[in-house]
Structure formats: structure tokens, C-alpha cells
Amino acid sequence: MDGGRSARRRILVAAYRSAVPLAGTVPPSVAYPILDRLADLVRVCTPDARRAVEENLEQVLGGRGRRHPWAVRGVFRHMLRNYYDTFRLPAMSDSEIGDRVILHGRERLRSVLAGGRGAVLVSAHVSSVALAAQALAIAERGGTVVVEPVEPPELLDLMLRVRGSQGLAYKTLGPTLFGDLTATLRRNELVFLVVDRDIGGTGISVELFGRPAHVPTGPALLALRTGAPIVPTYVSRRPDGRLDGVVGLPIELPRTGDRRADLTEITRLVTARLEYHIGRYPEQWTVLQRIWE
Fold it and tell me: For 72-109, how does the pLDDT look when each residue is reduced to its tens digit (9 = 90+)?
């Protein structure tokens, strides 16, 4: 059994290592149609993931998720396109990244950064978050991205090298993470958090699409500790394959003096912004795990 798992790990890591140089040589116009067909196959061959997507979309769209096959199909297709975009990063220049991501609302971020406390940018797993974060960092300010830990460790190392090839710092959950992010904000840099899943299992329950779900409290904790503003950011894929990256309006944060109440309310406000974004682009919400139990 252990030998079989070890072999699968080696095959998986080898496949990812091969995908990085391949993505750098195959243009999106060629890669995307091929990846869409492959994603259709993945959807059929992974019934557990497909059912999770159906159940998530049932809550987002109403009715049974399988009644929205266009959205279920889209989730898997966008997932593979997002991986391709990430693998392609080391081969892309700053100007190429800028051409792929059309940024909107940059003046809002500049206004926020003028306060000198950095900014906590929050988003959901909608479209190619890694590519959009890189474009924003190049255009405006460096920073740190918190990413989900993956297994095996060799694969995590590879993904961190690929994502960090353009200068952004990437961190996974760990005992020093909060201190690292605090230091980033105090340098007046950006912290990127994707907060539609409670990866660490330490979140709180708030309403998401009319039903309680556990979501992370990281943005609220950082804002309360450092005074940094929380800025929703939205990413979506255009019909031509490029991305729209939108910097939203900063969230007005309550300061009642009741830390627990403020933490809950800030988390609720963040979740409401995510709900808006996911609801606009459900077919691009690439979460393959159940959000609601």
C-alpha cells in the first residue's frame, strides 16, 4: 500500500514538473481548448468532487446543482485553466502579465496605501487568483500571499517556486504566519487572502448564501491588530481568456471596543462581499470541497 502511494506521489510530482515548461511554450489559444476537454473528463472521473461542486452550486444558484450543468462544467474547466495560468508564470514577463490581466480600481488601492498601513486584500477562489495577484503586485506594490498547503511536500515546494517566480512572497499556514503578515502590513505592503474556505479550521460560522458556513477570521484579526484596511478584490475570466482584476471599495470596519463582536461583524462584512463575487461568477468558483455540511 505504502509503495503504491509513493509511486503515485512520484508520478504526480513528475507530471507537475513537466507541466511548468510545457505551459511556458504552449500559448493560451492552443492550451485552453485542450484543457477544457480534459476538464470534462476529470469531471466525469471524479464523482466525489463533482457532487461537492453540485451541492455548493445548489446553495449558490438555488435548486439542485446538477440542474445547472453549465456551471458545474465551468468549474472544472476554469480549474484547469487556472493551473495552466499558474504554471505559465515563470515564462511570463511583467508586460505579458499586465496584458493578461486588466486591472480596474487601482486608484482605490493607491488611496488606501497612502495611509501607510498596507492593505489586506480578500478574495474567493474565483478565476485565476494567482495570476491576478501577481499583476496587481507588479503594478502597485509587493506583498505576501497565503496559500493552502498541499501534499506531498515536493509538490508544495514546486508550487511555491512557480508562484513566487515573479517576486511575491508566498506563505502557508503555520505558527509564524500571523507575525509575518503583520510585518508585511507594517512595511505598507499587500497581504492577499483567499477566504472562502476555512482551511485552518479556526474560523467562525456566518451566513453564506443564506446558510451558515465556517469562514476564516484572518482578515478581521489582522485589521484589528494593525489597523490595516480590508479591500475586497475580484477576479473573473473574460470571454477572450484574459482576466478582469477589480479592486473594490474598502470595507468600513466597526470599532465598538468589543473585540469579539467586531471580529464577528468584520468577518460577516467580508463574507458578504465574497458572496456577491461568487454569485456573479458561480461557474468560475473553483472549490471542489463541500462548503456547507
Answer: 999 999 999 998 998 888 888 889 999 999 999 999 99
Higher-scoring residue by pLDDT: 165, 12: 12
Give the pLDDT of residue 59.
Answer: 93
Give me the percent of the chain exceeding a pLDDT of 70: 87
Please report the DSSP string for the chain in residue order.
Answer: -HHHHHHHHHHHHHHHHHHHHHHHHS-HHHHHHHHHHHHHHHHHH-HHHHHHHHHHHHHHHSS-GGG-HHHHHHHHHHHHHHHHHHHHGGG--HHHHHHHEEEE-HHHHHHHHTTSS-EEEEE-SBS-HHHHHHHHHHHT--EEEEE---SSHHHHHHHHHHHGGGS-EEEESSTTHHHHHHHHHHTT-EEEEE-SS-TTS--EEEEETTEEEEE--HHHHHHHHH---EEEEEEEE-TTS-EEEEE-PPP-----S-HHHHHHHHHHHHHHHHHHHHHH-GGGB---S-S--
